[in-house]
Design brief:
The chain is mainly β and 884 residues long. The chain contains four helices and 65 strands. A six-stranded mixed sheet has the order 43-45-46-41-42-44. Strands 11, 12, 13, 14 and 15 form a five-stranded antiparallel sheet that branches. It comes from Pelagihabitans pacificus. This is T9SS type B sorting domain-containing protein. InterPro entries: Ig-like_fold, PKD_dom, PKD_dom_sf, T9SS_type_B.
Amino acid sequence: MRFLLLFLFCICALPVLGQREAANWYFGNNAGLDFNSGAPVPLFNGQVETLEGCESFSDQEGNLLFYTDGKTLWNRFHQPMQNGDGLKGSFSTSQSALVVPNPVLQNIYYVFTPDDVLAYGLGTGEAPSGVTQSNGFNFSVIDMAGDAGRGTVTVKNVDLLESAAENVTAVRNFEGDFYWVLTHYQDRFYAYRVDGNGVNLQPVISRVGPNISNYENFRGSIKISPDGTKLAIAHTTVKPVNQGNLFLYDFDSTTGTVSTPRLLNGDRVYYGVEFSSDSSKLYASGLAIRGANDMGNLEVVQFDLEATDIPGSVYLVNTYEGGRVGVISGALQLAIDKKIYHAVPNERLSVIRTPNLGGINCDFREFSIDLGDRTASYGLPPFIQSFFETIVTIENFCEGDLTTFTTDSTGPVSGIRWNFDDPASGTANTSTELSPSHVFSSFGVFTVEMEVTYQNGSMRTFTEFVEIAEVPQVATRVDLVQCDADGQEDGFADFNLNEAIAIFNNGNQDISALFFETIADAQANMNQLNPMGYRNLVNGQVIYARAFENAECYSIVEIVLSVNSSSDLGLYDIVPVCITNSGGFFVEVDTNAAFDLLENEFGGGSVQLFKTNESAILEIEPVTREPTKFDIREEVVFYFRIEDNGGCDFIGRIDLDLIQPPEFEEQPTVFLCNSRAALIAPEGFDTYIWSSGESFQNITVNMPGIYEVTFGSGACQYTQSFTVRQSPEINLDKIVVNDFRRDNTVTIVISGEEISNIRFSLDDGSTFQESNTFTDVQPGLYRVVISDECTERTETIVVGGTAPFFTPNNDGFNDVWTLSNTEFFPNFQMSIFDRYGRLLTSFDATLPGWDGTFRGMEMPSADYWYKLSLAEGRVVTGHFTLKR
């Protein structure tokens, strides 16, 4: 069946499709890029904040239409689109959304949202059929004619698959009259056709391996090649162990079928995949597998899809200097400038500048694309891969060269009209040749457009941003001086040839270089040298750099490799350094003492510190003045390199005398006691400097406030901050008196966590106890005292009671029975009963009590019961004994 959109009319002619639909990107943490000029320009108006996936879409002229994080759609005014919330994508999905336009109805767009692994929740790790807790694979419909051209979501979250992976890709068929949208689940690819009638709800299903059954491994990207012939997928396989799953398939853009699975590589946990614009190269990002549950450095690799042995053609494009740079390896995305961009959490993107070229010529630049003050995360917006298709091979990019355009279309082309975006070239600015040539009038980026007409009458517009490079303005001959640090003084050393770039590039940070032993190799771009650790053949050897901004436009630079004799100083000094943090097998040390020593000793040169001798020789991974972490199971030393004008003057080692930090409370609170507080810094240090001006270990203050003391010995200095406060008042919540008992108790309840050393007294402070409960308290009047070291609180209480017996024998002692301390209970009412419950008498404060008689007759010796009514409704009952 089909999902049909009903309109009063439809446009039958197919539109001329351009490639600027992918001109605007929004991703990461409010980051964005505009590619309309042919070079990425930062955007600062995006609303997306996403950990991974995102999507954005523009019209054929490159004007933004809308973008999304998979949950919310924002219109071109960066406002939530009408009915554009609640999409079933996710900010934590590898590819959280992909937009496909209706190829006939110009205002209709479909937003496809893949599944989310986090939606599966906890479970066995298996994703059985019929899983209901996942988001599934869905699509929603946007009508851009709605809401006055801002767009309206007219249909939301049409369920295509109950469960799926976190990926989606799309490509146009060759005729351009429909699209295929693909996702994956377990061992099946699902291809949905999108044509003028809408989305066909019945997919073309291709069942091919491998079977990814654990839902934790549903992460990773999928891409179809721009020419629609290949499909690549990265299964980010982490459960039960790390596993490299990067697969390549054949794809048929006519039928939507996927076939011929090929495992390309198993050395990395892959995440991002992307094809070059001419579909000849495949790139993938992955974390190197060091063990079953241990992932190593972030790497980007290239595969040559035209090679006989594609898996064997793997080329390591880049290993990130920072190691892992995150928990996953980040998205790779082709742009309309035909460069591939790589995202991991950073204020910059990395870029593969010439991805159609093989090996080192692809020209990877780590973190070279500035995002302004915004940051990327792990995702970039995917697009219909056909937007990036290249049907032309372009060669010769130097200013003044004859740039050639060789058409290589997969379909029968009847004609092409070229516009080279170079009006200064006059009539040569346009051409109708199938494979023309053009000399651009200057360097810069030119937007070359090709209006291609096919023999079946269909038309497509292709855009190529041709970057004509200025011939690199570099020094033609430079010296690269290295220290002789192998202990043999033989004129041989290991060089980091990349250090020469900063010497000859005249300050142009975009200049890169390849290195060769002969000028013939440099001109032919053959037999490149490994720049890291190249060992010279003779002292004064000349090698050659092929310097370029664009890999095909270069200048040759002669580099003289000189080894500085008597430059290895060996063990230079032992420096006390302060441990700033420690734990387990790691210590973190302050580097300032080592820097200060060397800068004082070698005042005329630049000082660099390194953790290893190799790093010092090759000048990689320098240590900064920030605290530096060491593994104490390894060598804990600094190696230094002293340079003057870019050449290595001296190299050597500094041993470290590690000084453990003292244990002390960094921010204690002290209370004033009798308007005084003693502040005591840790003992045993050479210097003490207080913020109040004193220079003793201990000081006394009489005002609340914050007092800091800096103390230490030599370079190791520490700071302690005292907060001095008024002594807190003792907050007496209540005194609970349980009286009129055989064992009366008094409990004193206070509040306030900051009060310490509290003591309690019932005898006006004569004796104190730490417990707040007093037992066996005799009836009477008490003055309660609550005291800490500095503050005292007093209250008076009455403990009521009755005599346990009385002897009415007229001897003057215990002749009358009543309650004790009657003066404190002026409104009491007392009733006396015999054991049968007969009321014998009642009295109040106006009467002396009971004399042991009833109606003039003496009552016998026995136990009698009383009922005492006190103020506020309190009733006490008990018994006593009459003794004759």
